[in-house]
Amino acid sequence: MRRFFIAALYLGVSGCAALAQDVAAGETSFRKCARATASAKTLPTIGPILNGLDGRKAGVVDGFNYSDANKSSGITWNEATFKEYIKDPRAKVPGTKMVFAGIKNDKELDDLWGYLKQFAANGQKK
Known about the structure:
single chain; 126 residues; mainly alpha; globular
């Protein structure tokens, strides 16, 4: 019985570690988008800055010309809405300007979200 308990405990702990977000891997994933969007470290060339994304309404960054579809989407960004959107932006918001095939890998989505959510609206790490 003791061996069973130790094995179950080990599996539970290792399973939690596997679910952890890897911020460094998220930064690597973010580089796929770096020309279009930005974190505190870069300036965008096409899209809006993503600092302070968690809890922000879609279509509100000053200086970016959002599509009407994005501005009227009613989205408030959080982990679930971001992941759904970034898997297939045009399916989530038909009419968006974002031309991106999407990220389908759940681990990559977790890591990317972990990277983005660390930045406050002012670009500083939380």
